[in-house]
Amino acid sequence: MYAVWSRTHPFFDRLRQKWYASGQKRFPDDLSLTPTLAKLWYASDGYLDIGRWGRPRLEIKARNENDRTEFLLDLFREHGFDPLYIRNEIRFTCDDTEALVDWMGDPPPGFEYKWVLDSRERYRDLKRRAYEEYTTHNAG
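RE: above sequence
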């Protein structure tokens, strides 16, 4: 029998207290959006609305903050973007999507497909490859 023990670093305890003070995830009131923070938020909770026609739009899920929509929108408005909050999502126009992707910079590995705005086929191909490379497969 094997056992694994780990210790919590005090820094992570402070993060937990700040982000989960009530037991639910809440963005700290003093949160300041940076390109890196936006990139990580989009990579984990966002997606591109790739329709059959037209240009893609970036959307980020934010159900945990639906009682503070102005706070969420203001995080982006400070940087010149003008998103909407609809059905628990922060939604950007096509023009803002292009500007936001540029502002966030290069994607983290495995999320390159979320930065593809010029080709539905390339988006789908990179997404398929990312899922194949970065997801756990059942060896069963």
